User: Which sequence fits this backbone?
């Protein structure tokens, strides 16, 4: 018969745990029926560099008598990845100075990288439908581990009204992002992720993301999903704000416009015969919108395109229409292209960098162009070879390269 003052049973033995994630350990501590009473002194980790214990629920110096059982839950956090075949935790028990250290009977434990600790989840609500909320979700890899065979399930399954509910990626490496849009009828999106590292499973794990309220939303009747008429109950036209006032015609449902502070005039004529108001909402940092005077039954707005990136970006503006049948909503889709001035400035700066310092100086020159332009004059005086001239003539080539990257290569990368 064992001469230990207590016996310990682990109710939830785990063969695999994730590093730096809290793991509850449920313990039953028994005092043998034939023996003496004992006092439970403490529960500790044998090596805190491997694992630590949160033992707030463990009552210290509690006495248990023969045949009695003490139940408690402690929380373990593992700090090192690897296999640990020996028990890592001990309970100190006994009377007076005759304390004994009894090991908690944990099985061989494998500690693997944590998916949850290496991702960041952001959700942004776009608009509301009758059957749910349209949400853009971004999952970013913020850690250092390369995960293989990533599988992502979006739920709750019975609450997803539209969207890809299961996604797969062959790898998910540091810096990678997964972006998708879904329509859910709940206030919370559930994400289940599964993957492996060097053939070792590290999932499945679960993460919930709250569905935030729609930004700048008015009290309006939600979209009725799968009813296109709700999205096309207005004649929307875009014109340039110059004297010519040319109309910008849509292409594949997108209105192509230019950034860099370019101004446009938007006219919205609702199809509803009793429309009383229209409110067009801008997008912070991309498009600013202000009201303009207009004719009866037509609402006009000035649109200033603030953003001016190197490549085309896509923005959706939402507008609210007040009618006698209740409020309605619509959407205006924009393809914001970089301005010609912006592209030539970048090409000129990069070409000058090649001329002055060589191809390796292109990226630093784009980050700090002032110093480059200070040295360009003296550098051009030394252009005495055909190769120097060819380097300077790389400017139009870079401009064409930017056009190719945005017009030809980017759509394939987006797909």
Assistant:
């Amino acid at each position: 018969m064992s001469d230990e003052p207590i016996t310990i049973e682990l109710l939830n033995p785990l063969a695999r745990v994730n590093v730096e994630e809290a793991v509850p350990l449920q313990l039953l501590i028994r005092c043998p029926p034939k023996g003496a009473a004992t006092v439970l002194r403490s529960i500790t980790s044998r090596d805190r560099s491997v694992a630590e214990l949160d033992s707030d629920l463990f009552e210290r110096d509690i006495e248990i008598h023969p045949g009695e059982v003490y139940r408690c839950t402690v929380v373990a956090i593992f700090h090192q990845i690897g296999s640990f075949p020996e028990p890592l935790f001990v309970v100190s028990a006994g009377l007076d100075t005759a304390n004994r250290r009894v090991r908690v009977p944990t099985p061989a434990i494998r500690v693997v990288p944590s998916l949850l600790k290496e991702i960041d989840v952001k959700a942004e609500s776009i608009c509301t439908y009758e059957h749910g909320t349209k949400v853009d979700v971004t999952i970013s890899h913020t850690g250092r581990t390369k995960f293989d065979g990533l599988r992502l399930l979006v739920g709750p399954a019975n609450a997803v009204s539209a969207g890809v509910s299961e996604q797969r990626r062959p790898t998910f490496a540091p810096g990678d992002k997964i972006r998708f849009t879904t329509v859910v009828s709940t206030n919370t999106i559930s994400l289940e992720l599964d993957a492996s590292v060097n053939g070792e499973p590290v999932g499945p794990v679960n993460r919930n993301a709250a569905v935030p309220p729609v930004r700048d939303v008015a009290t309006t009747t939600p979209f009725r999903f799968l009813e296109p008429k709700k999205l096309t109950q207005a004649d929307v036209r875009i014109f340039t704000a110059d004297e010519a006032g040319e109309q910008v015609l849509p292409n594949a449902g997108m209105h192509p416009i230019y950034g860099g502070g370019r101004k446009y005039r938007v006219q919205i004529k609702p199809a509803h015969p009793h429309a009383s108001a229209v409110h067009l909402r801008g997008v912070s940092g991309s498009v600013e919108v202000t009201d303009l005077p207009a004719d009866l039954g037509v609402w006009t707005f000035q649109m200033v395109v603030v953003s001016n990136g190197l490549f085309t970006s896509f923005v959706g503006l939402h507008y609210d229409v007040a009618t006698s049948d209740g409020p309605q909503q619509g959407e205006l889709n924009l393809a914001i292209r970089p301005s010609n001035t912006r592209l030539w400035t970048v090409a000129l700066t990069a070409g000058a960098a090649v001329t002055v310092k060589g191809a390796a100086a292109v990226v630093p020159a784009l980050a700090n162009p002032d110093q480059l332009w200070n040295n360009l004059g003296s550098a051009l005086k030394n252009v005495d070879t055909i190769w120097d001239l060819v380097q300077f003539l790389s400017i139009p080539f870079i401009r064409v390269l930017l056009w190719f990257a945005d017009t030809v290569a980017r759509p394939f990368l987006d797909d």
In short: Confidence is low (pLDDT under 50) at residues 217-232, 359-363.
